[in-house]
Amino acid sequence: MLVLAFLLFDRANRQALYNHIIIVLLILGFVYELTNILFHLYNDYNGVPLSTSPDFYIFWVFLDYSLYSLQIALFAWASIERHILIFHDQWLSTAKKRLLIHYLPPTIIIVYYLIYYCMVYFDTPCDYSFDGYLHGGIYIPCAFDRTFLATWDLFVHQVFPTLLIVVFCVALLARVIRQKARMHRANRWRESRRMTVQLLSISLIYLLFNLPWVAIIFAYQCGLPASVAIDGILFSKFVLYNVIFFSRTLLVWQ
């Protein structure tokens, strides 16, 4: 919360284009902590959920999976945009260019993901039990039980963004090292180095804590028996929660 307040209320940080996507991710993380994390803590501490209404359960799992996937997608976009900010800043030289290249893509991502997961969780009738979810497991909507939509969600919303993060972060590091000699101005180099370190450090957190989940879900979708996959799914699910905490810690450090 303090990091978010610092970025929002400090004019220089608020106006820096490379901080905008970080601010959005921090806001999503804050919402995630105030809802999903608190719901889990309340349920684990009291032995009963905050509400026993089926509508509340659906809303809970909707927040859990939609905000998780949305954060991964937005950070994948951040990995791409960082190349533009460092090496092609002339693409953002006018208000119109900034609207089309800087503001529009994350807006489209947010709208798409919210609509998609609203359709999955609220528009698809399902009578699956929430007991496993309440006891630390996961809730798989009917639309995701080894269906085409589940494969789409796995590859488009999890595997593909993760690969984008890897490819563009490695490419960014290589480009920065190769072009360091060309950045003659000290201020220009310091700003580029800061943006690079910020992205690479957070990307490392996303990859370390996201890859186990993607790998085990991929194996399950490819036929790994549920009895074998369940332990890995439970472990990787709770590992995911560390993305928010550790990425915020890195921002404080920076």
TrEMBL record:
It comes from the Eukaryota. Keywords: Membrane, Transmembrane, Transmembrane helix. The chain crosses the membrane at residues 21-42, 57-78, 99-122, 155-177, 197-220, 232-253. Gene3D superfamilies: Rhodopsin 7-helix transmembrane proteins. The keyword Transferase does not apply. This is G-protein coupled receptors family 1 profile domain-containing protein. The lineage of its organism: Eukaryota, Metazoa, Spiralia, Gnathifera, Rotifera.
